[in-house]
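Can anyone check this?
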Amino acid sequence: MATYSLPTYDSSNYQNNRPQYKDALVDTILEYHLKNPEATTDLAVDVATGTGIFARQLQRGFKRVVGVDISETMLQSARKASAQSSIDFVQSPAESLLFLEDSSVDVITVATGAHWFNIEGFIAEAKRVLKPAGTLAIFGYTGFAHFVDYPQCDKMLKEFGLGDSKLGPYWDQGRDVLVEGYRDYHRALTRSKWVDVIRRIYPNTIQGEPSTELPPVVAMVSDVTNNPTSQYYKTASDLELRNFYAAKASINTNFSIPTIPPTIPKVYEGSVARFGKDTAELAVSHFQGVIQSFFVGLIGAKRILEIGTFTGTSAIYFASALKRNGVKGNPDENGNKPVICLDISEEFAEIARDNFKEAGVEDYIDIIVGDAHESLASLEGQQFDVIFIDADKISYTAYFDAAIEKKLLAKGGLFIIDNTALRPAIQLIDCPAPLPKDKMPEEGMCDDFGAYHYFGRPIHEFNEYIRQDKRCEVVMLPIFTGVTLIRMLENN
């Protein structure tokens, strides 16, 4: 999936060769949508629009169409191909459509793209922005096993294209969601109490002719209630509520310095394009950035130390929060900027510096590249109100102790530790710590010893260490992959 976001990806070739959807599909969606007498056709939003193929087809049924995609590379081709249209194209992740108001959209479509999303997060965001009589239409070509009259050929192609010993392992994980006919979406939408959930598979794989009008999978749902915002809490899951509030209620639109820095989506896309989606997720999420910014304001922080910077997302949040606190940029009388970032990678640091400049916070942040153990020692004599640790997990305890030993945390300051509830640590619940050096996971409990060694074991030992540390008070927030807050007690 990350390939689509690469600047070198040939999106024009994609535009020219991607199969077109039949107009009958637009008619089917409109027919479903307009059976509700309250439905209107003012605005349709095509998410994961790619080069805008289906967005252009939607113009025949809606007064205004917006195409959304996380890839600026795709959107450049979309704008070029749609130059004669009135379609607006917006770069945004599907799970965070912050440019859309609550209850503002008539129809959301996703054409062979929903399998790349966080399902629960996208459903929650769709629920937020759809009007009370709105419709969500998800559809796509599964790509295999549709030779209705030739079952043997059907079987052979499926085995070659998806088999574990053939091409199967080379597909991105989201492909499974599509191959299963978006069954996971059907379950999630039903569980979330959306109404009139329809899932159809074309063609009929038992008998009959293949459909030439519709793609193999079409799933359509109406909105959950006639008043989705006021009734939201009655039906939403914990994850949906979290996404709702992260996307809306936690964002103060009156701030001159935005709650979510405007360049953050571009930072994420750049990370995806350069390193792939899995690595890009090293960055903190929007909501985590908002939470950490809130703590910066709460304690009136003026200086922040970040151990592990990646491409700069969290540092941008921190610097923006300091701006709201009235902290000025540029070095102080000792030559130190308000935010000091430590990272071992010059490549990451170079990207982060560019991102800081684009975000307008370069005067607030310095990056020290090198081994963090040595960098921490060099900071002795400085103090910070917040110390954020999000680096190699094996060194968490050492980083924590070094910061205390060098008296880097100011009185009344706060440690924020990321990733303290990573999945590989689950198998070690209730195990004593520190673990014996030769301690290995129980048979059948772990199929990835790298994850155990680099994540599970050190996180478990760090959690047990701070839990029993008489110098501090600890609370873990059970959000994301665990965020732990630590404050030092007065007599330490």
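Reply from J.R.: I decoded it. The longest helix spans residues 449-467.
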